[in-house]
Amino acid sequence: MSDRLTEHPRATADYPADPADLFVRLYDELPGRLHRSWPPNLWYEDDRVRRAADELSERIIDEGALDPAETAALVAAEGDRGRFTLLLALDGALALANPYGPFHDASALTAITVRYLVDGRFDSGAAGGALLPRCALPGRPEGLRTLPEFFGVHRVPPDEWDGLEHSLLPAVHDPHLCRDEPVEVGCAPLMESFDELRTEFGERAGRTVYELVPADTAEIRARIRSVIRRLDEAGARIAVLPEATLSDGLLEAWKEAAHDTARPDSPLRLIMVGTGALGGGDPPPNRAVLIDRWTGTELLTQDKLSPFVLDGQQMRDWGLPGAPDSGTAEEDIAPGERVRLLDCSLGRLALLICEDLTRTDRWDRELLAAGASHLLTPIFSKPILRHRWEEQYARRHVTTLGAWVVVANSLVVGAGMPEDDPASGERHTCLVAGPPSEARLDHAALLAFGSSGRGDEPGRLADGRLPVLHAGAAHEPWYPHWSDDLSDGRPEGRPGASSAEDAKQAEPDDFSRD
Questions:
Q1: What is the pLDDT of residues 127-137, one digit of tens each?
Q2: What is the CATH number of domain 183-469?
Q3: Fewest Cβ atoms closer than 10 Å to its Cβ: which of 83, 266, 409, 470?
Q4: Where is the sequence biased in composition, kind Basic and acidic residues (predicted)?
């Protein structure tokens, strides 16, 4: 870590000189009544505040720190307005340390970039919680901004931070996805029927419980290699497999197949290989695993947080072999305790397993505070239909988090249901939902429904293409103060800055908008 931050002549004063630690301190000093109120919105539009913030920001960029005495003087003179001015200045400066931002060449702030790459945070951690670069903004029309929405960083409070496990993907495993290009998503069902997935019912503590056990056969292992080959041929950059498709043996088969089939020109880099009872235990967890296609290395795992309870009607409609005639059955798993996040060039990724997509009480505060930008969601359920629970919750998370949501299902339950089921519509095996634009002009969500008739075929749209999503962190349209300048709109010392219009991504044309 550079000594520039610690050698500041007033670094021992009450306020820290380190820009990231100072941001945390000032943010935490603002009273709760300002987190959703008019004053910060009026301050943000005040030319005097923006001019003062811009001047301070340029000095922080040049020096890599801010004199604590100057901070104290401004706070003493202007109170919360002074704190807000300083926060805008610090946020504008930290934009140059932000690896997800559109700027570069910020040598005085390199120490903060290095700290994030090494420790996974901008701040030193002295105040508890964390300061993270922003990768998502709630997907609703901009109105009265809440305090967190003014800044290109997330101040994650200690309570929410303690409920997370956050990590950064090493560069050797990163797919290095470009924010200006759509990312093709492959969701292959893998399992085709209950002949390939065993349902085991039993009793625990006087209650009926069940477990889903995928078959580990030569045919399934061969299909895994076929899935990878077809995903490559289709041009998928990332892949999401469904729930109840993994065992310890099948996970190793995925790792071997991924590594063995990797080629320099293979587009596929990240594979969420499904979920299953992994690692032992009584009961075991239902664990999802994201791997690096080139090496087979595990990059992110997540244990299902909320066991699913089947009711009697579902067991009959789904045709679950061996199911009891009446009553309910609870998924026999050891629930996960925390939600995990992984930062990479795609954004801030989380894995939510089936029921977890709906049980937001287990994770919504944490993921909103930390700014998850992509939710990869394997499920085991009936075929995906329009306007049902998968779409409803995907829309909700697009609105509240601004996240892209990928939902992947197998063919198993659908294979046992009659095609003329009166409750059915057009059946799908995957859904990709996301914000309609960077500008957040309406409450709409972009929706893409993909379908596959075979376990090794990725779900495709009606026109035969794969669904797509975009990387997170479209900062320039979100934060005008990042490119404020009184003359030409491009601050000195910020080479590589482009206008918000130039940074705007083309809206994908393979989505339907509702």
A1: 999 999 999 98
A2: 3.60.110.10
A3: 266
A4: 482-493, 501-514
